[in-house]
């Protein structure tokens, strides 16, 4: 379930044209909240074989990952990265154009131990005279870039993907499954930050503070009334007690006189 095989075609008008490349996408258990690992299995001259490659859409850069990115976008972005320079990134190669063309011609005969001949896993390529169809992920792919070890080389790396984002590949096994998974929430929380800018609500909370003394005013009045009642009762009890003592004294005096 978490180990997917894919097959893509090399982008047109490049040294990868005519090539068919097979690889694996290793999805983490908490996908799509974390990015996958991408491994190429077919020799291609751009990425190392059987090694996790470093791309802004791979697990090497979780800070760039967006849960809305599906497998279809990952594959189209991978195709757009193939003609770009490796710039020393992990798993990157910089073969010459002639070497890559040779590997592209040899790739159609490559066979996967699990999937079989890869040329049978992908539909026929559209005629060259057919009008190219722009990918709906073109704007997102244009913003992606390959992680470079040299900071100076980051600028050309980000400029290449937009020019190569128009060729689209149609992986037969992954498109129907991955594309619907995360297309709709493409931009759900991009601009969620402006919401907290509402300080007006804090002002009414401070204003009612003068009205606060009104509620304590009633409480002291009630307490004074209760205190006065209790004081009156205690005074009456003291008077009654004194009256009883006085009566006892009178009775004692009367008994003494009678004797």
Automatic annotation (TrEMBL):
<protein>
    <submittedName>
        <fullName>Aste57867_24545 protein</fullName>
    </submittedName>
</protein>
<feature type="compositionally biased region" description="Low complexity">
    <location>
        <begin position="155"/>
        <end position="168"/>
    </location>
</feature>
<dbReference type="InterPro" id="IPR016135">
    <property type="entry name" value="UBQ-conjugating_enzyme/RWD"/>
</dbReference>
<dbReference type="InterPro" id="IPR050113">
    <property type="entry name" value="Ub_conjugating_enzyme"/>
</dbReference>
<dbReference type="InterPro" id="IPR000608">
    <property type="entry name" value="UBC"/>
</dbReference>
<feature type="region of interest" description="Disordered">
    <location>
        <begin position="153"/>
        <end position="194"/>
    </location>
</feature>
<dbReference type="Pfam" id="PF00179">
    <property type="entry name" value="UQ_con"/>
</dbReference>
<feature type="domain" description="UBC core">
    <location>
        <begin position="1"/>
        <end position="121"/>
    </location>
</feature>
């Amino acid at each position: 379930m978490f180990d997917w095989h894919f097959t893509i075609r090399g982008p047109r008008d490049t040294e990868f044209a005519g090539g068919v490349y097979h690889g694996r996408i290793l999805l983490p258990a908490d996908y799509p909240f974390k990015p996958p690992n991408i491994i190429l299995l077919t020799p291609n001259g751009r990425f190392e074989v059987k090694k996790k490659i470093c791309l802004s859409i791979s697990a090497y850069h979780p800070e760039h990952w967006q849960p809305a990115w599906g497998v279809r976008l990952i594959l189209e972005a991978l195709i757009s990265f193939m003609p770009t320079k490796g710039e020393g990134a992990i798993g990157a190669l910089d073969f010459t154009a002639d070497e890559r063309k040779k590997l592209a011609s040899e790739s159609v005969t490559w066979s996967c131990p699990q999937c079989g001949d890869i040329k049978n896993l992908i539909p026929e390529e559209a005629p060259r005279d057919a009008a190219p169809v722009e990918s709906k992920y073109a704007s997102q792919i244009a913003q992606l870039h390959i992680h470079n070890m040299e900071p100076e080389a980051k600028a050309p790396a980000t400029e290449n993907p937009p020019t190569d984002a128009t060729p689209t590949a149609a992986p037969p096994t992954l498109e129907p499954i991955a594309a619907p998974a995360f297309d709709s929430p493409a931009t759900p929380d991009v601009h969620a930050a402006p919401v907290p800018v509402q300080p007006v609500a804090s002002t009414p909370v401070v204003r009612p503070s003068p009205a606060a003394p009104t509620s304590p005013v009633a409480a002291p009045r009630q307490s004074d009334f209760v205190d006065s009642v209790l004081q009156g009762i205690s005074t009456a009890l003291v008077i009654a007690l004194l009256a009883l003592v006085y009566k006892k004294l009178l009775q004692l005096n009367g008994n003494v006189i009678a004797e």
